[in-house]
Prior knowledge:
- The longest helix has 50 residues, at 3-52.
- This protein has one domain (3-172).
- It is elongated.
- It is built from 5 helices and no strands.
- The mean pLDDT is 83.
- It has helices at 3-52, 58-74, 78-117, 121-149, 158-171.
- It is mainly α.
Amino acid sequence: xxxxxxxxxxxxxxxxxxxxxxxxxxxxxxxxxxxxxxxxxxxxxxxxxxxxxxxxxxxxxxxxxxxxxxxxxxxxxxxxxxxxxxxxxxxxxxxxxxxxxxxxxxxxxxxxxxxxxxxxxxxxxxxxxxxxxxxxxxxxxxxxxxxxxxxxxxxxxxxxxxxxxxxxxxxxxxxxxxxxxxxxxxx
Length: 187
């Protein structure tokens, strides 16, 4: 095989993988990461209520879990969500700009090298098939990794989160004798 084909094959793979990984991250990986965070939050809440509050009756544990979920749902995160969306949009635009420039530069290099060395059709076919096969295997590997490994990996520190929950509960405690809506009235 000619060295020009070998060199161009490598840079085509760089372009294809850059384009694919950017697309993959902003679509499939983003969905999986959202699910991972939701699962970790549920795990920490279940762990906190189930293990830290063992002496309580199951009904009381359910009420506490319900109260925790309600307090999360009652907070208005609109401003924070908008800030995150704006920041993510900027990052996404930078990523697509970088990948677009990279792909254009690589396409120009491929075309120039192809004309200089006057490649035959089977070389071009080899480059296309090689890139598509690599893309297929990387797609399968990335998807399986996220689904089998990333989806089940717990990076949240349950003990650190429990401490923050306990501190928050301690700072926001109420007097069950004076406040009828106090969660302590039911124990």
